[in-house]
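Progress narrative, work stream C.
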Amino acid sequence: MELAQGTVAFRRQVNARPLQWRPARHRLEHMANMGRRLIRSYKYRLYPNRAQEAALTDMLGQFCDLYNAGLQQRIEAWSRQGVSLGYVRQAGELKAVRDAVPELAGYSYSAEQQVLRRLDKAFAAFFRRVKAGETPG
C-alpha cells in the first residue's frame, strides 16, 4: 500500500476485531542513574479496522499540520520581531487554535500539547548541536 510521506501504514489482520491490542515485545531496562531499579516497558501493536485506520491517519495528518504551524509560528516570530517562542507560550495559545480549527477540537488536548512539546524538544536539540559545533541536522 503506497502512502504519502508522513503517514503510517498499519498491519491488518484478516478477521480483526475492533482495536485489538497484542504485546509485541517486553523489555526490561537498567537506568544508570536509578541504581538497581528496573523500568518495565511494553510495546503494543495495533490491528485497527479500516474505519479506525482512516481515523488514525486523519489524526496523524492534523497533528502534522499542528507541528508545522507551530514551527512556522516560531520562524516568523524570530524573523519579524526577534522573539523566541517556547512551549509555554505556544501551549497557552492552543485553546484559541482549537477554537479556530474545529478538526483539532475532536482530539485530546494533552495529545496536542505533546505535539508542541516534541517541537520544543526538537528545537532544543537543534540549538544544543549548533552550540556544540556539531552538525545541526
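Work stream C, second folded protein:
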Amino acid sequence: MKDKKKSKKSIGKGGHTPVKSGLWISPHRLKLDQRTKIAKLLKDLKAKLIEHLGGNVSFTERLLIDRIAHKCVKAHIYETNFFLNEEQGSDQHFLALVNSLRRDLQALGLHKKPGTLPSLEGYLKEKNGG
C-alpha cells in the first residue's frame, strides 16, 4: 500500500515524466498492430505535424502532436460512421472533440516553421562540391 502512495507522490518530481511513470500510453504499448490503417494514419499524422514544426520538437510539442493525431483519428471515425449511418455518439461530443482539436492546433501553431537550415559555410561547401 505504501508503494502506491509513493508512486503517486513521485509523479512529476525527480525527472518522472508521463512516459517514465506509465501514464503515457503509446500504440506500441497497447499492442496496436502497426499494419492497420489506424496505426498507419497515426504514424503519418505525427510525422507530418513534426515536419510542420521544422523537425525538431520539444517534449510538450510531442505531447500535443500525439493528442492531435489521436483526436484526428477519432474525428475521422466519427465522420465515417455518420456517413455510413452507424452509431457514432452525440453531435455535442463530436463538436467538443473538433473544437478541442482546433484549440490544440492553435497551441501547436498553424503556420509552418522552416526546418533547420545549413550554415552559409556548409551550404557553400555543398554547392561547390567540396
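The helical segments are 2-10, 18-21, 37-52, 59-83, 91-108, 120-127. No further action is required on this item.
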